[in-house]
Amino acid sequence: MNQSPITRALFDDVMTPNYAPAAIVPVCGEGSRLWDQEGRDYIDFAGGIAVTVLGHAHPKLVAALTEQGQKLWHVSNVLVNEPALKLARRLCELTFAERVFFANSGAEANEAALKLARKYATDHGGPDKREIIAFTPSFHGRTLFTVTVGGQAKYTEGFEPLPPGITHVPFNDLPALAAVISDRTCAVIVEPVLGESGVVSATQEFLEGVRALCDQHRALLIFDEVQTGNGRTGHLYAYMGYGVTPDILTTAKGLGGGFPISAMLTTSTIAASLTVGSHGTTYGGNPLACAVAGAALELLADPALLAGVRHKHERFLAGLHRINQRFKVFRELRGKGLLLGCELTEAWHGRSRDFIKAALEEGLLVLVAGPDVVRLAPSLIIPDELIEAGLQRFEQAIARLVSETAPVNQEVVDAR
Questions:
Q1: Under a CB-based contact definition with an 8 Å cutoff, are residues 79 and 401 in contact?
Q2: How does it assemble (predicted)?
Q3: 131 labelled as ligand-binding?
Q4: Residue 20 CB contacts under 8 Å (≥ 6 apart), including other chains
């Protein structure tokens, strides 16, 4: 039987319509470049939404996957496996953690963290200590529990009734947290840098204050480092740069360099509440994922690589400032390491996706972080020459976008 060609149009015929993917179909990647079905190349500043921290098809990750794929793929958690134990031990060596739980996605890791916080509070604080406090705007995943904790109506509408016992206060607003936290609070969950919600960094004073309030009220502090972890901010985990240690940390995205894996890290005392049978996952900690993540972690923990992230941050900022001097489209450039946000000026509010489309047409992949922010999350080892080449393509995309918006922005075009 003849099969129709695999094209973008096939998506509309066979996939659920909850995504709106671009018109291209990538078929190959190497480092910080992708190629589509037509052979056109793209410089990747998106990193699969901060996932491909070591680029596409990194030889050490390919080797780890190939070697493990010839040995053992899956045994479930009725048995242990060597790659999972090695990875867990290494995560404990490199962080505050003493115990690790593996899952497959950031949402699953956050789900485990939130369930553990409630279970620990029940064990040590009684049945009334169950409130979870989160910050708006934030994003913690797409399960019903995590999307409720995220607190954004656009992700919860139509899925009610939502899990109760969750309170929201504004991000970076310590007095607002102090006004609502109490001895009934079992946990506070926070992203050190808001990823999906605009690439906004927590202030030092805010995170230190959150830690102090949690200690005062015997509440667990959960850091959602799904996007900020694994070298993304120039530290292995963002908490290290802040010098504020959480009780529970979640990590995913870059942990496997593109292979699906996540982890929840915590102390042995807190982990003790996850008794046998209280939580689990079929695929979490599978040998394939853990072997790849183990290889990735060894590369990501290299101080030279982390220093390189901080260097590349400055190179990106310099280039973005140069572009903005010409076009004046960005109100603010912000972020840490290679998680960067370009907030659009008021005249361009609501049009971040126009920048994504224009960049794609110039052979560049970038992201949004809400309707008003363009987000960059490239490989942590992207070569400097590709940074410059990608920024040139970004500049060309913005130039065309600005020219197409005349006469509103004609004065900008004329000023070139």
A1: no
A2: Homodimer.
A3: no
A4: none
> Is residue 126 scored above 90 in pLDDT?
no
Range scoring the smallest mean pLDDT among 1-5, 118-122, 158-162, 381-385:
1-5
Answer yes or no: is 123 a known binding residue.
no
Q: 72-300: which CATH architecture?
A: 3-Layer(aba) Sandwich (3.40)
Burial of residue 109, with CB atoms counted within 10 A of its CB: 0-12 exposed, 13-18 middle, 19 or more buried:
buried
Residue range 8-58+303-414, CATH number: 3.90.1150.10
Taking phi over 0 as left and psi of -120 to 50 as alpha, with beta for the rest, 49 belongs to: left
| Domain locations in the chain as residue ranges | 8-58+303-414, 72-300
Asked if residue 2 has pLDDT above 80, the reply is: no
Q: Distance of CA 33 to CAs 6, 97, 172, Å?
A: 21, 35, 36
**Amino acid symbol at 246:** P
Least confident of 162-176, 254-268, 394-408: 394-408
So which residues are the catalytic ones?
139, 224, 253
Render 188-247 in DSSP notation, one character per residue: EEE-SEETTTT-EEPPHHHHHHHHHHHHHTT-EEEEE-TTTTTTTTSSSSHHHHHT---S
At residue 3, the pLDDT reads 76
* Rounded Cα gap, residues 61 and 67, in angstroms: 10
Return the sign of the alpha-carbon dihedral for residues 17, 20, 24, 30.
Answer: negative
Amino acid residing at 237 = Y
66 is in an annotated binding site: no
Residue 264 has pLDDT above 70, yes or no: yes
Residue 51 assigned as binding residue: no
Per-residue pLDDT, 408: 45
Is 374 annotated as belonging to a binding site?
no
